[in-house]
Design a protein that fits this description.
Radius of gyration: 14 Å
Shape: globular
Number of strands: 5
Number of domains: 1
Distance between the termini: 32 Å
């Protein structure tokens, strides 16, 4: 599936679910972890910045992996993703609708476990590598 095929899928969104900043983050092994989403929801909107989206696409057209977690109670408030309201393009990532990335900012918050802090460090390194805040 090329970019043109992906963009043709723009009009299909289930439940008009728009993620709030603490619902998802980048984690170990370049996965996008999403919390609190109903199993029946197949498409999600996530704000992204274009240059980051380009970096999320792997070699051989393998697209960025997404993990979905169903229980919002599992959410650890160790990472915040900040959204931007500017208009943007869409693409599909493994069945999830994802906007081209505007901004991703990771922030350590209190009560984070060692494992969570390790994930945050990886995210911060990723953001620094791609000249993000």
């Amino acid at each position: 599936m090329d970019k043109n095929d992906i963009l043709k899928e723009l009009n299909y969104i289930v439940d008009n679910k728009i993620l709030r900043p603490t619902d998802f983050w980048l984690s170990n092994r370049s996965a996008l972890v999403i919390y609190g989403i109903k199993e029946s929801v197949d498409y999600l909107i996530i704000n992204c910045r274009q240059n980051i989206f380009n970096n999320l696409i792997k070699r051989n057209n393998y697209i960025y992996r997404i993990e979905r977690k169903k229980k919002i109670t599992d959410l650890k408030p160790n990472v915040l993703l900040y959204e931007d309201n500017r208009p943007c393009k869409f693409t599909i990532i493994h069945g999830f609708k994802v906007e081209t990335i505007y901004s991703i900012m990771a922030k350590k918050l209190f009560y984070a476990s060692d494992k969570d802090l390790e994930q945050v460090d990886e995210i911060q390194q990723f953001l620094k590598k791609h000249s993000l805040p």
